């Protein structure tokens, strides 16, 4: 398996995730609920099953920096392996997830296949954060928004969750700004201009990509063409929530 240039000798890393979490109960929570908190060595490791979540750091002045957007199949809270996490995992909308306690997760990492799959997922998340740093450091608002929108589409596409350049994005414009280092006014103004220019639009939390070529150009090489990343065909992502009823447990976080 090739993830962001890192070769991992596994049949499918995400299949390993499903095996790791297969006994964990299903839980659900609503928009803006904190699923895992910072600085807690007992925080769980999460596998997002449905919906969007994000990792964020709270600043002393009350503002929040969103570090990464988590999609179905992504892990959250893996830093607990090192003893504690420095961020929150927050539901962007209605989220279904499974959770493993830190001690349990560390025990499972004794298995080399488990450890390698988690390393690959961590490297992929780190690559996204490196790209975010490059976006904020060098791209203008249009470039940042273009990179975010196309990257999310490509991640969803590779997991079989979308087959058209239209998808649901349950982030507010303020949260998009918290992720891209932009003010709410700047996000709103830039989205309006990109819609008028026929590039893309985000309305009522629905993203519609209109011109891939120009969006890729705005990303300044920070995105790979869609055909450069193989689809995760070995994993039936669209079936992720079809676990036996006895394996599910719904609760409010």
Secondary-structure map with pairings?
Layout: E1 2-3, E2 6-7, H1 13-21, E3 26-29, E4 34-36, E5 45-50, E6 53-58, E7 64-70, E8 75-76, E9 88-91, E10 95-100, H2 102-108, H3 112-138, H4 141-158, E11 166-168, H5 173-180, H6 184-196, E12 200-203, E13 206-209, H7 212-218
Antiparallel strand pairs: 1-2, 3-10, 4-9, 5-8, 5-10, 6-7, 6-9, 11-13, 12-13
Helix pairs in contact: 1-3, 4-7, 5-6
Describe the protein's architecture and organization.
The chain is an alpha+beta fold and 253 residues long. The protein has a single domain (2-241), classed as Jelly Rolls. It contains seven helices and 13 strands. It has helices spanning 13-21, 102-108, 112-138, 141-158, 173-180, 184-196, 212-218, and strands spanning 2-3, 6-7, 26-29, 34-36, 45-50, 53-58, 64-70, 75-76, 88-91, 95-100, 166-168, 200-203, 206-209. It has a four-stranded antiparallel sheet. It has a four-stranded antiparallel sheet with strand order 4-9-6-7. The chain has a three-stranded antiparallel sheet with strand order 11-13-12. It is globular. The model is unreliable at 1-11 and 229-253 (pLDDT under 50).
């Amino acid at each position: 398996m090739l993830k962001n240039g890192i070769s991992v000798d596994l049949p499918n890393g995400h299949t390993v995730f499903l095996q790791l979490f297969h006994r964990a109960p299903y839980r659900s929570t609503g928009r803006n609920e904190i699923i895992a908190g910072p600085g807690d060595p007992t925080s769980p490791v999460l596998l997002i099953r449905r919906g969007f979540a994000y990792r964020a750091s709270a600043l002393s002045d009350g503002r929040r920096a969103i570090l990464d957007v988590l999609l179905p199949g992504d892990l959250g809270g893996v830093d607990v392996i090192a003893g504690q996490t420095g961020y929150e995992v927050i539901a962007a909308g209605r989220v279904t997830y499974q959770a493993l306690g830190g001690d349990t997760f560390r025990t499972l990492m004794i298995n080399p296949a488990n450890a390698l799959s988690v390393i690959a997922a961590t490297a992929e998340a780190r690559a996204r954060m490196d790209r975010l740093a490059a976006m904020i450091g060098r791209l203008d608002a249009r470039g940042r928004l273009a990179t975010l929108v196309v990257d999310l589409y490509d991640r969803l596409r590779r997991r079989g969750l979308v087959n058209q350049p239209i998808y649901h994005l349950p982030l507010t414009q303020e949260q998009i700004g918290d992720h891209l280092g932009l003010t709410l006014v700047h996000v709103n103004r830039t989205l309006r201009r990109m819609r008028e220019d026929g590039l893309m639009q985000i309305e009522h939390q629905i993203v519609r990509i209109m011109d891939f070529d120009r969006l890729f150009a705005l990303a300044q090489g920070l995105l790979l063409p869609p055909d450069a990343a193989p689809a995760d065909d070995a994993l039936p992502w669209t079936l992720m929530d079809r676990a036996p009823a006895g394996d599910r447990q719904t609760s409010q976080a």
